[in-house]
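Quick bug: Peptidase MA superfamily protein output formatted oddly.
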Amino acid sequence: MKFLANMFGKKAGAPAVRQTEPAPLEILCEGASQPFAFQEHLYSHEELPILDWQAAVDWSARASNPASALIDCKRGWLLHLRDALGQGYDLRESAHAAVLSTGDERYAAAMLDFIERTRRRIAVTLEGVATFRDDDREILIIFDDPDSYYRYVSHAYPEDGEFAFSSGMFLHAGCPHFVTMRDEHHTVERVITHEMTHASVAHLRIPLWLNEGLAVNAEDRLMGKQPKLFDPPDMRRKHLAFWSRDTIQEFWSGHSFGRPDDGCMLSYDLAQILVEILAGHWPQFRAFATAASYQDGGASAASEHMGIDLGESLAAIFEQASADGWRPDPEKWRGDVAHTPE
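Here's what came back:
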């Protein structure tokens, strides 16, 4: 490969390195007859550069080492984003991680070290379900303020509609990476753990409720439980008041996780409760989790691998006399199913 020095491909245990070179205009690699020209494949969204990832994938596929070529495309884009975000932002990288943020060297080194350790801990906690590629890097972008954060993530949202606020998210399409912001009101490490869990199961076609349930439970397992906004009796009253045979279909389809009202909070809480119950016998749950499909809300996999009816499980949680109407029913789902993009 003929790239600029100090690329992502470092051996495990290599120290964190701050990248100071200019954002590349193009990159070359063995096997590809033409260089990858960034200016031809970058577009501006809210004055921030977004790369045409399909073009990057197509170009890197012609390289002698496609994985390494695609990593170089990612790195080049991060350097362009660094420059667009302005003074103070730096790109630092380690064996399996890259962090774009402001702050001193110790802060970035701590984030890189945390990502490396969290990769290992998630892989153990979700044994047989979580997967991290050794020839790729976990990319974390930490924005300094809400304005920059929402300017960036808005490129992943439809133009119309109302959406729930967030403090971090995993963006899968094109270049899998996770983003968060500096904010004294939340712990960055918790967001990283949550979003890295999403990254670790992005290879699966699981429904959103299962994806979020895994992430919330892994976050609590690895970082410790946080006090909730409401005590258990109040949360139960809210659940009983909100969920019905109609709204529960939004949970199974994933749409309730994006609601701008209490439905969003209740969806995460219900996903956590349901996954915690189902994961009690790990070998069966592992088989279910790796086979579950967003297209039916995981119903067939739950029946085949765990011998349970998801509707009956929820009916029991809500003390319903019958499971009728509480099962995943794709025919009642409106629009596209909300799930991790393929």
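Actually, after a second look the formatting is fine. The longest helix spans residues 105-125. Closing.
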